[in-house]
Amino acid sequence: MFMEPEKKILLEEEEVQRVVQRMAHEIIEKNGGADGLALIGIRTRGAYLVRRIAQKIESLTGAAPAVGIIDVTAYRDDATGEELAKNSEAVKAPVSVDEKSVVLIDDVIYTGRTVRAAMDLIQHLGKPRKILVAILVDRGERELPIKADIVGKNVQVAEGERVNVLLQESDGIDRVVVTKGREHPSGPRS
Q1: Could you say which of 15, 73, 142, 145 is the most buried, measured as most Cβ atoms within 10 Å of its Cβ?
Q2: Helices H / strands E in the chain, number of each
Q3: Residue 130: predicted pLDDT
Q4: What are the residues whose beta carbons fall under 8 Å from the beta carbon of 138, sequence distance 6 or more?
Q5: Is the pLDDT of residue 161 over 70?
Q6: pLDDT digits (tens, 9 = 90+) for 6-27
Q7: Is beta strand 175-179 parallel, antiparallel or unpaired with respect to 162-166?
Q8: 3-class SS at 152?
Q9: Cβ-contact 177, 15 below 8 angstroms
Q10: What stretches of 43-155 show up as alpha helix (H) in DSSP?
Q11: Rounded CA separation 87/90 (Å)
């Protein structure tokens, strides 16, 4: 019998909104404005976050950055054949990355494999001027030497715990929680 896992709330709705606002400010600062930006969200929740961050950047600067969404499944080194078969499209809303400051946006960074796969995919799309990584939650414990340039919240999470990002667009609420106990089988680790 599956029991509801114990939860610890890391961020409530208002805090998620503040973190997204701060991330938008940091992206503008690191790029020296909004010119030449290409924001790329990593599916699934990175696709929602990229839209939010793009809206914040536009409201702060008056310039709308280019926005794209990618699915990195085919570029992961730990994807199963079944996962690869489900991957219908790697890139949606394609944007030019040539000579742009590309900002990869995702909800959680853990092993570093998702970001590595995203960088591989971006390199196939063109030659960016630079690539930055913006992550809502960094839970540490990398398997690969990859770090985020912009982090909303750093947390230490024990083995067997999972960081769950809930967003209004997909879950009806903005909240970040850590669940203890059995992990839900939701695909490869980020």
Answers
A1: 73
A2: 5, 9
A3: 97
A4: 108, 109, 148, 151, 153, 154, 155
A5: yes
A6: 789 999 999 999 999 999 999 9
A7: antiparallel
A8: strand
A9: no
A10: 45-61, 81-86, 113-125
A11: 7
In angstroms, the CA 138 to CA 115 distance is 12
Asked whether the beta carbons of 58 and 32 are under 8 A apart, the reply is no
Q: Distance between CA 12 and CA 174 in Å, rounded?
A: 7
pLDDT at position 85 is 43
- Residue count of the chain, please give it: 190
Average pLDDT score over residue span 113-138: 95
Tell me what the pLDDT averaged over the chain comes to: 88
∠ CA 45-76-165 to the nearest 5 degrees? 20
**Residue 53 in tokens:** 């961050």
Q: Is residue 189 pLDDT above 90, yes or no?
A: no
Lowest mean pLDDT among 90-94, 123-127, 166-170: 90-94
Q: Which H or E run contains 171?
A: helix 168-171
Which structural domains are found in the chain, ordered by start?
13-157 (3.40.50.2020)
Angle subtended at Cα 178 by Cα 189 and Cα 167, rounded to the nearest 5 degrees: 80
pLDDT value at residue 180: 86
